[in-house]
Structure formats: structure tokens, C-alpha cells
Design a protein that fits this description.
heterodimer; A: 94 residues; Non-ribosomal Peptide Synthetase Peptidyl Carrier Protein, Chain A; 2 strands; B: 322 residues; alpha/beta; Rossmann fold; 14 helices; 10% strand; globular
């Protein structure tokens, strides 16, 4: 799925995974692109995201993809990796 | 159980005496007494170590505190024979805008909230049930008695915590006033659950000169309290943060499972037992035990910042600029 994504210069089409990955690098990995981040890597187990980070991530997802994440959906099986988030967002957008 | 309560008390008493007199070179100790089990145990240990004439206990209530906290602290102070002072922090906290800043954030989340309403923030996760995030919910009972509960968004969560933490930091400030005025040291009262999992406020209740029980799990603190003859009303009291207008237990607020279960898993895992072995002993499923261990590890890792001293640049790390 490609999403219209606004950055500083222009509007471009980006995949959900790309958008999430960029957000994670910018907000939690301090733009350290030497560190790899696979689609399957668990944010919780690798310590990338803590409880404050989860709230940041949820706010970002809700605003960027115009979806509402309910309390019941706030689970690692939906939000704990780039791949899981992609799948979750695609389901919500259907 | 291999744990010897009497020997532990003797060791702790010796430790307190050595630390206060030899390391810190102070004449006595000041302790914030909340009427809870941890501060009561520390007060009793300090009295044994230094003599009650060298121990000052402070009750530091503010408008959201339970009156029971002060009453229990006062009665223990009397029993131990230590000097006891009450300092109400409400005006100071009002002056710093602690209540206003907190209430503004709560009202943005739950518009029905008005200052004076009962409210608390709680975690809803439970590692015994499933693996979930440590996300806080705001729980308000409005003046008509209706209950409102909502997940806290990031900004409001941060603002409520930052404003509420002013309470612990003001308590610390008052403890140091009384300590410095007497040339005493401040005793911290955090136990291992609080210290290792980050359930304390940096430079608030985490601000002390020494922490005599921060290596001891809560269930062991109960054993120490029995041996030290702490009154049963204090031992039986539900551990609480006592910082929100509504009563919120520590289990509800942060730990999310009974101390007996948490500590049994924690100790057994520390002894090298597998999740399956621990599960058999405690009549749980191995997945439950694994989730609790993961929860302990994550809370420990995520709160490293709280236990980090101010980071200084070492001379060897920088190029000479002179």
C-alpha cells in the first residue's frame, strides 16, 4: 500500500513500512542509520520503544494514517514491529 | 527459605552505622515517614543503629495525602521514641503550580474533571494475563459520582507525571532542610522492587544520602517488619503512592501483580530456575512466568535513566583545549 506522505520538500508516495521505519529512525534511533532495523525486529525486546515511546508511536500512527487505535488493539501483536504495524494499519484501512 | 531475618537486621544495622558515621560523617538521620511499611522499617533500623535520639522522622502531607499516613507515622515515631515533625507541603506545591498543572492536563483528557474530584492514574496491563504495553489510564469520579476512564495521550501523561513528581521533589527538599539544619544524613526508603523497576522519582524519593533497603524485595521487607515489631496496621496497609486524590495501590499503579507472585518469580529466576520450574512451583503456566520475567527486564531497562548519576565527561574523553 502506498500512502501520500508529506515531507518538507514535496508530497510523495511512500509505503507504510517506509513511513514507520523513518519515524522509528528519527524518533527512537536518533537517525543512526548504521543500526539495522528489520521488519520483524521487536521494539519491546530490543528496547527501542518504552511506555512513553508507545504513546508517541500511537499518536503518530493515528495522525498519519487517520485511524483510531482502540484500547483493545493496543497490543504487541499489532504494534511491536514494522511488519506488524504495516499489517495492522492495512487491516484498519480496509 | 535461606533468608535469615535476624542476621539481615544485624547486617543492616551495622551498615547504617558505618555509612552514616564513617562514610558520610553525619550525626544522625532524617527519614520521610509515610506510615507505610518501607519507611517504617528504615526508621526502626536507623533507631537500632544510631539510637532514636539521633533519628528525626518527618511526615510531609499535602492536600491529597491520606490523613491515615500521618497518624500511622506519628504513632510509630512515638513507639520508636524518635523526634517527629510534620511539615505540610500544600502551600509550597500550590506556589509551584503543581496542582494547577496536573489538573489542566487531566481536564484536557476528561472535561468532566474539576479540581476536588477524585482521580488517579493506573496501568491496566497484567503480565499474568497477556503481554501488553505499560500505558496509563486516567480514572476520574466526577462530582455526580460518575466514573470516567480514558487512555492518557502522551502530552497529558507527561504533564500529569511531571506535576505530580513535584510532590516527591518538594518532600526531598524539606528532608534536606531538616538534615542540613542538624548535620544529619537523609535515609532513602526505596525497596528493590521500586529501585530496580524504576518506581521512584529521580531527585525526589530517589534523592537520599544512602538507601539501606533498596536491595531487598518487598516480600522480604514484610518479614523484616514483623521481626522489627512494626505495628500490624502499618504491615497490613495496602502499599500506596499516596500522591493522587483517589486511593491507588502500588500494584494498581505500577507493579500490576501481587508482590508475593512478582517476588517469587524474580528470586527464582535470579537463582537460575527455568520458567517451567518456576511455573511448577507457583502453579502457573510457563508462559505467564516468561511474561513476568520479560516485564521485569523491560521495566528495569526502560528506567535506567532514573538510576543514572549525572553523566560527566571524563578528562580522557576530550581533547585538550587549553
Amino acid at each position: 500500500m502506498l500512502i501520500e506522505c508529506e515531507d518538507k520538500k514535496d508530497v510523495k508516495l511512500a509505503s507504510v513500512r517506509e513511513i514507520i521505519r523513518n519515524f522509528i529512525y528519527e524518533n527512537f534511533l536518533f537517525n543512526d542509520y548504521t543500526r539495522t532495523l528489520s521488519d520483524q525486529e521487536s521494539f519491546l525486546e530490543s528496547g527501542i520503544i518504552d511506555s512513553t515511546g508507545v504513546l508517541e508511536l500511537v499518536t503518530f500512527i493515528e495522525e498519519t494514517f487517520a485511524i483510531k487505535i482502540s484500547d483493545d488493539e493496543l497490543l504487541p501483536e499489532n504494534l511491536d514491529s514494522v511488519g506488524q504495524l504495516d499489517q495492522f494499519i492495512q487491516q484498519k484501512k480496509r | 527459605m535461606r533468608w535469615n531475618t535476624t542476621a539481615t537486621i544485624e547486617q543492616l544495622t551495622e551498615f547504617i552505622c558505618t555509612i552514616v558515621q564513617k562514610t558520610l560523617k553525619k550525626k544522625g538521620v532524617v527519614i520521610g515517614m509515610s506510615g507505610g511499611i518501607d519507611s517504617s522499617v528504615v526508621a526502626a533500623l536507623c533507631c537500632r543503629a544510631l539510637g532514636s535520639q539521633h533519628v528525626t522522622g518527618l511526615a510531609l502531607p499535602e492536600k491529597d495525602s491520606s490523613p491515615e499516613s500521618r497518624e500511622l507515622a506519628a504513632s510509630l515515631a512515638q513507639k520508636l521514641g524518635l523526634d517527629f515533625i510534620v511539615e505540610d507541603l500544600t502551600n509550597g506545591l500550590e506556589g509551584m503550580g503543581a496542582y494547577r498543572r496536573r489538573d489542566d492536563a487531566v481536564k484536557r483528557v476528561i472535561p468532566e474533571y474539576e479540581p476536588g474530584c477524585s482521580f488517579k492514574i493506573v496501568l491496566q496491563s497484567n503480565p499474568l494475563v497477556n503481554q501488553s504495553y505499560h500505558v496509563f489510564y486516567c480514572h476520574v469520579i466526577d462530582k455526580q459520582g460518575n466514573v470516567h476512564e480514558k487512555r492518557l495521550p502522551l502530552q497529558e501523561y507527561l504533564q500529569i507525571v511531571a506535576a505530580s513528581n513535584m510532590k516527591q521533589r518538594m518532600r526531598m527538599s524539606m528532608l534536606y532542610y531538616h538534615a542540613e539544619a542538624r548535620n544529619y544524613a537523609v535515609a532513602g526508603t526505596a525497596n528493590r522492587n521500586e529501585y530496580d523497576l524504576g518506581f521512584f522519582v529521580k531527585y525526589g524519593d530517589g534523592g537520599a544520602d544512602f538507601m539501606p533497603i533498596c536491595h531487598i524485595l518487598k516480600s522480604r521487607i514484610f518479614q523484616l517488619a514483623e521481626e522489627l515489631q512494626i505495628p500490624q496496621e502499618i504491615i497490613n496497609r495496602t502499599p500506596s503512592t499516596d500522591t493522587y486524590p483517589a486511593h491507588v495501590s502500588q500494584e494498581e499503579f505500577f507493579f500490576r501483580l501481587p508482590f508475593a507472585t512478582l517476588d517469587a518469580i524474580w528470586e527464582a529466576a535470579g537463582d537460575g530456575l527455568t520458567a517451567a520450574e518456576i511455573a511448577r512451583q507457583l502453579n502457573l503456566h510457563p508462559e505467564q512466568v516468561e511474561r513476568v520475567i520479560l516485564d521485569i527486564c523491560q521495566k528495569h531497562r526502560n528506567t535506567l535513566y532514573l538510576r543514572t548519576e549525572p553523566v560527566r565527561i571524563q578528562v580522557e574523553q576530550i581533547k585538550k583545549t587549553w
